[in-house]
Write a structure and sequence with these properties.
The chain has 239 residues and is of the alpha/beta class. Helices cover 20% and strands 24% of the residues. The longest helix is centred in the middle third of the chain and has 13 residues, at 128-140.
Length: 239
Amino acid sequence: MTPSRPDNPATEPDSVSTADVAIIGAGPGGAATALHLARAGIKSVLLDKAAFPRDKVCGDALSGKVISELRRLGGDTDALPALLRAEARQVPSWGIAFIAPNGETLRVPFKPGFDKAADYAPGHLMRRFDFDDFLVRQVRAQPLIELRENTEVASWERAPDGYWVLFDKVKRPLVRARLLVAADGAQSRFGRIVGGHTLEPDHHCAGLRAYYRGVGGLDPDNFIELHFLPDFLPGYLWI
């Protein structure tokens, strides 16, 4: 189909990508969506304003649900979890420890009676800088996914034929797609303007993240530690 024209046709590039699906945001949600579509034989264009690897503030913990999703992304096989386990910048985690304000500790293993010599860890600790890049590497290996980094979507419109057309800051068309997925996070402009998504200030939570060197006394089984301190309740600190 013929791409729709921007306000200034002279700025239009020679060709505009056309896909079944365009995805804004190449974080875990966007990357996983593109990978699922590729497994189903559906072409997608995945756009992100950053270039990978890039930093992202997060708690950096990957639960068993993440491992289950990686299996699904790999066709219900252990292929992707195995690749994750082989990553040098991940730490296997075997459970979670809750530390109450009075100092009492409740240890909850992800797998009761686990054997580190024979089992695979149900969870992992990995910086989003590294985990998101791990997923993007899987994206790059898929011929049905066109990854466009350093590409910020500034505006969009619905063409008469029903296609979504995405534009950059100078109104040049970036991509035409039958379906548009907004995977650019809680602050998504598209989700707010088109989807009507709003944040609720009365239910807002915020987090701070920092990395430290030379920390001793960590859990020998890499349990995630949640520390509930009186001064921070109902919030908590976690290591």
